[in-house]
Structure formats: C-alpha cells, structure tokens
## 1
Amino acid sequence: MGEALPVDYHTKHQANTKIWEISKEAAVAGKFPISKSHYSLIFIADAHWKIGQEKMGLDIVEPNTCVRGCCSSNSIPLHLPPSSFTLLSAIAKGAESVVYEAILDGKKVAAKKPILSTSEELDKFHKELQLLCQLHHPGIATLLAAHAKPPNYLFFFEFYEKTNLAHQLHVEEWIPDLDQALSIMLQLAKALQYLHNKGIIHRDVKPANVLLDRDFSACLADFGLAEYKKDLRRVSTVNWRSSGKPTGGFHKKNMVGTLIYMAPEILTKEIHTEKSDVYSFGVSINELLTGVIPYTDIRAEAQAHTVLEMNYTEQQLTSAVSSGGLRPVLAGIESGVPASMLSLIQKCWDANPQNRPSFNDIVLELDDMLQQRKKMEKEDLSLHQPPISHVHQVMDDVNNLHTYQEKINWSTQGECVSKGASFGVHSGFRMWLDGFDDPLAYHLVLSWGSFATCGRRESMEDMHFLMPFLCNEKDVHAFGIFDGHRGAAAAEFSVQALPEFLKALGSMCSPADALVEAFVRTDVAFRDELDSHRKSRRVIQKDWHPGCTAAVALIVKNKLFVANAGDCRTILCRRGCPVALSRDHVASCPEERNRVVSAGGEVKWQVDTWRVGRAALQVTRSIGDDDLKPAVTAEPEITETVLSVEDEFLVMASDGLWDVVSDMEVTNIIRDTVKEPAMCSKRLATEAAERGSKDNITVIVVFLCPVSTAERVY
Ligand SMILES: Nc1ncnc2c1ncn2[C@@H]1O[C@H](COP(=O)(O)OP(=O)(O)OP(=O)(O)O)[C@@H](O)[C@H]1O
Ligand SMILES: [Mn+2]
Ligand SMILES: [Mn+2]
C-alpha cells in the first residue's frame, strides 16, 4: 500500500488548503508524508474507496506501472495475477467497452474491458488509466485496480449496485424525492468541482455516466473523454481534422445519448471548457427532477427511440439548441422544486458560457439549499407551510401538474373576473334575435355531444364548454374549445371567462363583434390576473407564460358564427362534404407569418417548422402568452354562415384530432357511426389516438338537423 496521496481537495470551508489524504495504515503507523506543522489540516480520508482497498488486500507488484511505463500509481495495483480475478456476466455494452460483473480477490467488482482494436484506442486506454490513477474523490467512481498488460486490458471499479442514473430514471422509473435529488446533485457537483480544480474537463457528463450505489449515493464515472484542459486545443483540432465532426461521443451509437447534453458552443465546434461540463450538468439535473428524457415528453426508455427519432433529426436539434435557444422543458415549480433550484438550472444552461456558474458557485448554492431544507425540516413544517411535496406525488396526480405553488384555481378566477365585468346582470339577446327576424328562415333542430381525452400526454390542457340555450334562450347556442399550452392555466381561465363575457356583450353589439370582444377581454383579463399574481408573488416562476388557443361557435337562429384564434378547427358538413369554417393560425401559414412579423414578432424555422419567438410557439394567435403579445394576438377570425337544410353537422376539435385525421376523414367517420353526437365525438378521438396522436384530444359534434334526417342524407 502506498503511504499518502496529495490531492487538492477544495470545499467550501477548505478552499485553497492543501490537504493530504493518507491511508489508514500509514496514519496508524505515523507515516505522515510531511511534518504536521507545515499544514493547517491533515485530512484522513474515510471515503469508501479506501475501505474497499483495505478489504481487497491486493499486493502492489513493483514496479507498479503499465506495460509502457506511462501509467503509475502508489496505491492502485496496475497488474494482477490472472488468478486474482474472474469475469462473470456482461452488465453493459458500450460503444467503447464492455462492462462485466467480476470477482476480484473474492469481492464483487465491475470490470470495464475497453474495445481495443486500433493503436489509437490503445493510447486512449493508457490516457484514461493515467487520469484515473490521479483521481481520488468520494464522488468519483473508485478504480480499485487495473490490468495494463497484453493481452488483457481491464479496469476494475467498485461495484455500484443501482447501476447508472439514466437506468434508474427511465428503466426502473425511479422517482427520487427532493432530498435524494438534491443529494445526488451535490455529490456530482463536488466531483466536478474537484476535477475542474485539477484542470480536468470530463466532457461526457450525463445520467448514464452517474453510477448509483445501493443507498442512491452518486459517483461520476466514464473518463473515456476526459482531458486536461491544457491538452484540449490540440486534441480537439486533431479530432475535427480526422473526422470532420466534434468529439464528445457525438457520433457513437444513438446520437441523442450524448448530443442532448452537449452545450451550444460544443455543437458549433468550439473547444470544451469547464463551462460546457456545467451545461451538461444543468441538463442532467433537470432530467433528474423531471424524470423526462430531454426534448421528449416521455419517461420510459422503451418509448424513447422512436419518439426521439420522430421529433428531431440530429441536425435539427443541433441547430435548435445552438442557435434557436431550445432547451429541455424545465422542471415545474408545482412539483415542489424550489425556485432557486430552477433558476440555477437555467443559469447552468445559459447560452453564454460566461453566464454559467462555476462548480465552486454551484456547490455553494446547492449546499445552501440543503441547509435550508434541513432547517425547514427541524422547524415544524405542519404549522405554517405545507410540506414540500415529493416529486412523485405530484407527478402521479395528473390534474395537479399545472396548478402553481399556492394552487391558484384558474377556473374560479376566470368565473369571478368575467362575472364582475357583466355585473352579474344579463340583459338578454334581444338585439341579436330581432336582427334576424325572418319567419321563413330555416329552423334548426340541434343535438350535441363531446369527448375529451388526455391522450398520451401526462396532463390535460384542453378545456371545452357546451352551452346550448345560452341564458335559457331557445335560439342561441354556444360551444367552445380551448387548447392550453405551457400549462392549463389559460385554458382553465378562458373556459369560464369567455362565455361570461359573451353573455354580457350580447346586449351591446352584433354576434360577430361580441365574439371578437369576448376573446380580447378574456385575454386581457387573464394576463392582468397573471400579472397581479406575479406581483403578489403567488406565481414565482419567472418565464412562465401560459396560453391557449380558442374556437367558439355561436348559433343565433339559423346563423352560425365561428370565432377562431389558433389551431383548433371547426368544420361544417354540408351535403356530405366538409366545409372549413376556420383557418389554422400557425406560423407555417405565410399570411400569419407576415402578420406576426409586421406586428413586431419574430418567426424562425426552429426544430421542425416555423415558430414564434424564444418560446418557439407554433400558433400565431392565442389567449395569454404574454411574452409574445401583441404579435401573437388574441383577436379571432370570424366566419359567418347561414345554415340551411343542406347542413348536417358541425365538428369542432383541438389539433390533437386534426393532426392525424383529415376533414374528409372526419366526415366519413361520422357517416359510419351511430348518429349520436357524444358517440361520434368519442369515435373520432379514439381514431386519432389509434393513429398515434401525441396530444390531448377534444371533440365536439353538433348535429344541426334531426338525426333521422342526418341518417337519410347519406
Ligand atoms: N462500477 C460500476 N458498477 C456498476 N455498473 C457500472 C460500473 N461501471 C460501469 N457500469 C455500467 O456500465 C455502463 C457503461 O460504463 P462506462 O460509461 O464507463 O462505459 P463506456 O463504454 O465509456 O460507455 P459510453 O458508451 O457511455 O461511453 C454504465 O453506464 C453503467 O451502467
Ligand atoms: Mn458511459
Ligand atoms: Mn464513455
């Protein structure tokens, strides 16, 4: 056994103190490397890597170097008698190595056997070994021994029972509580702080390279890409010259495995710095909090490949991340994650490396959060504050996903605000009805129904209302769908507020004007409400700008008014053929794109299509979205249709339906379904789900003539 290892072990309180780690035997034998008086502190390491070695009792055979003589260690045996180890089953097959469960000197260990077919790969083995011999930290996977002589090249590591963090999150679907998550983050941050203080950049920080022990304590592993910062310029240049591609695991196996953790500057082929590790750390800890694979909305790995491949190509993602500012969906404050942690994550993945904190800062911040939590635990939480909910409790409760910190009930808010506007008095629709007083006009016989499903999403952000006989008026009917994004708040608010505004406006202006005005007032009221919650700090998540699209159909006698803002769609079936009563307001529509741009908005091709602003919104009109106002207007487009005996039914639906079923198919499906509006709605939603719609799906069907007639029409 070696006597002592000098390490720079910086922590919050011991910054810049040179500390010596010494093995227990050396300490017991009094073999200190230098006289105590020279140093303020002697640190006897109790990290498990040492204990592991003590149990091992493997002899170091001098000279303890690799076959080339470039790797050496005074504590880690570098060549072993073949009888001292046995490889058992393979536990992981990477692009660069196979990792086996193994027995080394009677103890269960992990043996990493690199694939060495070229001389470069052999060089790489030596480099990784040189590096690993220098690393001694409780947050770094412990190298117990190595075998660095032909024909066997092997690394032996401490065995981590729970394998890696990616496996736990996406295969085991493990949901850590906040304390577990915080402790993993801190262990990782300390390991990276240690590396950076040694001048080493890891370059492959990701959950798959975080190993977990039985008690979920975390270790950073896989130094296959790690480099001394001073060598990086040369290494990177050589790599790019030889492959034309950036290094960093970019092109090995499934590109998303690593690409999604790569900082924008790396994607544009700049040189790695400490700050690119900080970026990868940010993406990784957000993944730990959300349990969701970055740039998808899925948890389980089994589903990952197809969806990832469908959503983005390598190039799309590269350009969206590096020039479009795209980032994974941030963990929600509703899951109990403290706002300070969310803002730390955002700082870590800032586009400008200089704005990212260093690991010294990160360790301090995480440490503070940990102390805070401990303090809160001590004080009686139940007295004043609800206990911080564990992430999984909220995740399990789909309906809670978008209720924010103090649980603002947006639908109650919507009701109150709009009732206040109409003073709770409704003076009737005389003006509307008198306006169309033609005794010979076609008389509608209505039946209506709806169906709404969350689909494959984790939460429901669609809302709708069915209000036949509005205010008990036999000839006035209203139906509406709201499709929320960035949370359900705007949709929940609007489904209450908009019909109230509409009722209040019924006595003041024409149906078309009333619809426009109701949309605009709902939007203003919602944004005001959100603002006041921000001021009163009930909403503390910065950059939370919920919105919703909206479609409302208003029938007054034989006239149908359809108001639309966004990509919900309304069609009318006339003599068996679909007639569009609304136009989708999306950035891929040139007119809308021009309108947004002339209103001062920014439209860019991002990921897969045209999108608006930093938020990368696909729709160009909506209620809410206050970061994109006024360009993304709430003002609807209105169509006005005189209904006649030729008109059979109306279908309104959120884009979850229209994404996968065409207007014509919708009419055909209704033709083949029992003429019952709720059944037809359900049939359409089911069809959309079966065709792979990934969104919430809401469908409203309104028959405009007696069902027997509808049946006869076909
Ligand atoms: N000490 C260990 N204990 C338990 N499992 C381990 C250990 N070391 C590695 N593994 C498992 O093997 C996997 C691959 O290990 P590692 O990342 O070191 O290899 P690699 O070939 O460099 O992989 P990659 O293809 O990600 O670069 C890990 O994600 C982990 O699941
Ligand atoms: Mn790995
Ligand atoms: Mn690797």
## 2
Amino acid sequence: MTENEHPTGASGRRILLREVRPYGTGDPVDLLIDDGVVVGIGQHSGTDADEIVHAGGAVLLPGFVDLHTHLREPGGEDAETVESGSTAAALGGYTAVLAMANTDPVADNAVVVEHVRRRGREVGLVDVRPVGAVTAGLDGKRLAEIGSMARSPAEVRVFSDDGHCVDDPLLMRRALEYTRAFDGVVAQHAQDPRLTPGSQAHEGPNAARLGLAGWPAAAEESVVARDCMLAEHTGGSLHVCHVSSAGTADFLRWWRARSTAGSVSAEVTPHHLLLTDELLETYDPLYKVNPPLRTDEDVHALRTALAEGVVDCVATDHAPHADQDKDCEWSAARPGMLGLQTALSVLVRTMVRPGLLDWRGVARVLSETPARVAGLSRQGRPIGVGEPANLTLVDPDTEWTVRGAELASTAVNTPFEGMVLPGRVLATISEGRITARDGKVEPIGGRS
Ligand SMILES: NC(=O)N[C@@H](CC(=O)O)C(=O)O
C-alpha cells in the first residue's frame, strides 16, 4: 500500500457531521464526508447521508498523531497489544500513532516493522507506523538495518532507540547522515547514561529525602545540545523525545534562533506539562517515568516553550506496564505511564484553559507538526474540501474522572488516576470511517 491509499480503509459511506466548529472558531457548520474525503463544508440537508453525527457545536480538529507510543507487540502483550493500544488511540482522538521499537524482539529489521504495520492494518482503527531502532538490539554499538526498514513495505521514516540513548556521538552522527538520504528522522531519548547510573527520580531535594538515586536535568540537556550540533553539522533531522527540563527548553530557544542547517523538532509529554516530583512523596511507582517528573519551574517552562513553539509538539510516551511491573516497590518498578486517552484532556487543562494555546494551537501540536515530523502526508491536513477525512470531534467542556481500569489499554498505569479532567473526544474519524464514538470504538465489522 502506498501513502495515498487509505490506511484504515475508506468507508465508501457518506457521513454528515452536523454543527461542528472547525478549530473551535466561528458559527457551527455541517461537514460532509464521502468515501474518505471531505466533500462539503457549509449547510447540508443530510438527506443523502448514510450516517449523521449531531455534534451540537463541538470543536472539530484534524485527527491527532502520536509520535511516541509503546504498543508492546511483539513480546509485551501482557501490557498492551496493537489491538488494545489502537483502541486506546482511537478513543483518545488519534488517527495515527508511531509505535516505538523497544519491543521483544526489537524492531531493528524489516521483518518486525512489517509485522507491526500489518497488525495495525488488520486492527484497522488507527494508522500504525512502526519506528525502527537506530542500533541493532538497542545496544548502542552498531547501526540497525536502517535502509532495509526504510525501503520495506513498512515505510519506516522515524528511527529511535527510545528507552535508551544513542550516546555514542559517532553513531549518532552516522544515523543522522544515513537517514538524511531518505528524509528520515532520528528521534533521540536524550539521557547521558554516565550521568544517570541507577537513576530513579529527578535529582533534587525530593529524591534526596527519599534516598532515590537522582537523574539530573543536565543529563538530558547536554545530549540535546550535542545532537542539535550534530544535526546542523550533518544536515540531518533530529527529533528530541520527551523534553523534561527548563534547561532543555532554554537551550532549544537559543538554538532555534541561531541554527542554520539541519532540522530539529521536539516533543513534550502531557505528564511533564502537569505533574511534578512532589508526587514522589506517595512512593507510588505510578509516578515513575523516564525522563522523571521534575519541578514546578520545569512544568511552567515547558508550558511556555510549547506555547511559543520552541517545543513544537505533544507526544504521549504512552508506556503501558503490566501490574507486576508497577505494583511493587519503587526501585523495582518499570518507568512509564499510559497517555493516549488522557492527552487531550491534560492539554485542555494545562494549555487551553489557562489561555496558552487556542484550538488552532492544539491542532498544531497534536496533529500538524507530528504529521510533518513523521512524514505522513494524509495526516495533520487542514480541515477543508478535498482533504482526507482524518478528524477528531472534541467536547471542550465536559469533565470526567480518570480510572485506569476503565481505559482501553491492557495495562492500567495512568498517573492521572482519580483526577477530574476537562475535555472529551466525542468521535474519531479515520479515512472517512468513524473509528470511535461516545467512548466506544466502532467494530471493524461495521465497515462497508
Ligand atoms: N518512558 C518510560 O518511562 N518508559 C519507556 C521507555 C523509557 O523511556 O524508559 C517504556 O518503554 O516503558
């Protein structure tokens, strides 16, 4: 299948969205979709539609694209599968997700990435795009089969050792050079391992009080600075995963003002926009994550950087873990948090309600920029006639209580357990097919 075909299968149906507000502005309009494409925006009678969705003035956005999802298949199916993760993604408003390579076996060759892409198509709820590993077996020693993954039917464009840092500067340089040849991107988990041996939490007074080994922000900042320089030197494309510190944001601001070559994009996670290391007090491993939750000052710097476009997108780092890996003492627990079904709500709470981002800004950080970074030409498009119908309908006002057990993931490790958050996804439309509506995915059998 090529980029121009319909990854989740065009419906051939006519769907009328009644009374939607594209980007949350203006008077409500009706939007007509036919065979996967938006064919009309304005007033429509609805008499010739197969299906009508009454939106009541809800906000319409381009479908969300997650650059950083751990789907755990193959090898970690007790935490998540392509099917359960795709379900969570569709319910969270996503029409495409990039599936990280730290599976078992590692996605460092064409066979594994093709398997993941195929499973995504079989499930058919979101466009699942495998990320390829940068180094074989994520060992940081030699490059993975980057070219063969890029040329394979899985069409891999983003490469990452996420969970591990590509800390050898020569390998990082080679990866940036190599991926440049096919417009690829290296997504770096920036963490100097020599500065973070045995690290458990943000290095600061809270970790010290609890006797937890620290993960200093400098371990991230120094790698980001080095990699930006390597991107400029090689002309390659660097994507910085999960920016977590005020210092990284400051560096990127400075870098963007002076850089002349290469390309740098950066993501922040919803949890780093809301949560701080004060939560360590609970000693609850739900709050253990890599990079760690940091301070209030970092949270505010990250919000400002996202509003300014210095950090240019939001990615979930959705990291499901089975109960036995979270329901244990802090130091034995695996780092990571669920994120797909709460990302929009956390963004509404941290950025939209405080006036830091409007809905156009939300479309930019959740959809347009991630689609551009991933090279997905059918995603992150403007809402307009002739465009592919990858869309998300949002009720900005309704508040809901997060319950891990009610989320679609196999794992339940949400750090937002019990929190009341604003904003709900009413419906997700992928290539003209309703994939999620009113908190339920639409069965694939319902597709014509
Ligand atoms: N972000 C996380 O805390 N966890 C990630 C990998 C990682 O970055 O350690 C995971 O795969 O679980």
## 3
Amino acid sequence: MKLGFIGTGNMASAIMGGIIGKKMISAEEIIGADLFAPGREKVKEQFGIQVTEKNQEVVEKAEVIILSVKPQFYEDVINQIKDCVKKEQIIITIAPGKTLAWLAEKFGKEVKIVRTMPNTPALVGEGMTAMCPNEHMEKEETEYVKRLLESFGRVEVVPERLMDVVVSVSGSSPAYVFMMIEAMADAAVSGGMPRAQAYQFAAQAVYGSAKMVLETAKHPGELKDMVCSPAGTTIEAVRTLEEMGFRSSIIEAMKVCEEVSRNL
Ligand SMILES: NC(=O)C1=CN([C@@H]2O[C@H](COP(=O)(O)OP(=O)(O)OC[C@H]3O[C@@H](n4cnc5c(N)ncnc54)[C@H](O)[C@@H]3O)[C@@H](O)[C@H]2O)C=CC1
Ligand SMILES: O=C(O)[C@@H]1CCC=N1
C-alpha cells in the first residue's frame, strides 16, 4: 500500500478523488480506516480502495499516512498508532492548529511529519494546499510529498507561522465562496432564472474571475474597475456591496477563522 488514510470523511474523500482521478496512485494501493462503518463503505464503493476498521492496519500497510480525523481526535489517534509508526514512514497531517512541535511531543519519538492544509476543491483537482515538513524529512521525501499533493491542485511550501492564515484564506474559504454562489443564484432565481441555470451562471462567473486573477496577474481592483462602466450597472452593485460591508465582513470572518485555528 502506498497511501493510507485514518478517517475517511469529507477531506479524505476529496484527496482520494483527486489522487485517483489523476492516476498518481491507484485505488488498489490506497487503504482507509474509519470508526464509522457507513463512512468506510462509502469510500470503498465510491473509489474502490481497501478499507478497515483498524487504524493500526493502515500504519502496518501504508508508506505514507494521512491523519484525516478532526483535530479533537488527533491525540487519541496518535496514542493508538505511535508505537507502530516506523522511522521511514511519512505522516501527513491536515488538521488546523496542530503544530509540528505539538505533533512531535505527542509521537514522542523521531517521526517524519509534513503538516499540511488542503481544501475540498482537491476533489476536482483544483485544491490549494500549504505544506510544512519537519526536520526529519529528507529533501527527496519532501519533493515526493509535494508531487503527491500536486496531483490534486496547487501546492506551496510555507513557513509554519502562516498555517493559521492558510486555514482562513484557502482551507475554509471554499465555504464562503459557496455561500456567495448560492446567494448570487438566489438573486438570479428572484429575477426569473431557473435555479439550475442560475448555479451554472454564478459558478462560471466565479471560476472565470478567479482564473483572470491567476492568469493575468493584474490587481483584483483593476479587474473590478474593468467591469464597472461609467454610470453603468456594476458600479451601483459595487456601491451597494460597500454599503452592506461586503469586504469588511469577509475580512472579519477570516480573522475569526484564523484565531479559531490558532487555538485548536
Ligand atoms: N472539510 C474540509 O474542508 C477540510 C478539513 N480539514 C481537516 O481535515 C480533517 C477531517 O475533516 P473532515 O473530513 O471535514 O471531517 P469528517 O467528519 O468528514 O471526517 C472525519 C472522519 O474521521 C472519522 N473518525 C473519527 N474518529 C476516528 C478515529 N479515532 N479513528 C478513525 N476514524 C475516525 C469519522 O468517522 C469521520 O468519517 C480535520 O482535521 C479538518 O480540520 C482540512 C482542510 C479542509
Ligand atoms: O472547518 C474546519 O475546521 C476545517 C478546517 C479547514 C476547513 N475545514
């Protein structure tokens, strides 16, 4: 087995979908453990991976292990597996707030760890992941993990101090973007557009706008100005958004998100 997951919920499924979809690792070489039987069966059926109820079995069989349980369960899981983890295995963490220092203390021995923060667009190969290897990772091992993570989107190695910011700007942000798409579609429905069509229009507009930011390297403000014709429709929408605190509500929400991550 090349890859193992402890916890086969939303984020693990998104990563599995991305990795298998890009043929980076085949489903037969992936094993996942979950306490919850229907959760295990779901990924077995959806992706064709091997599943087990025993976390230790994942550690016995996999070369790279992703700890994909909620942060609150990290300590229990680490206590369960730490004695079976071998020196050459690589542990990837995806939980907010769980620092490399905390992880090292909980494992209590030399373990290769890469702290990461992915996001659910991994499922469609458009994830954004930050990674931060510990001191026991060799250069080639870090490169291998980076390639693995790149199979489901973009990856950046960042200093660990930025990890809580990453949670708010990319780990959690798909939720805010989905809310915006939902709200945009609701307004379009209110204007008479059928709902399915409204989601398509709203989502494609968000997707295309994001692509413009990434591909033109222009300042987002300049791209916004390009849409606003004098005395036109858009500038009135922009004025209303400013009046309703659109940008400050996003900034404030993200500061709270960052703070929660720091304290988990
Ligand atoms: N959902 C997201 O968008 C993102 C989640 N994350 C992180 O990913 C991790 C997992 O989050 P989700 O997938 O959203 O949660 P989830 O609740 O969908 O999945 C967690 C899974 O772990 C299982 N589980 C709980 N205790 C276990 C144990 N002791 N042994 C084995 N399995 C156990 C649960 O049954 C569940 O299926 C969390 O640390 C979260 O912060 C990181 C980035 C994005
Ligand atoms: O909500 C959470 O705690 C996780 C971390 C980033 C996205 N979801």
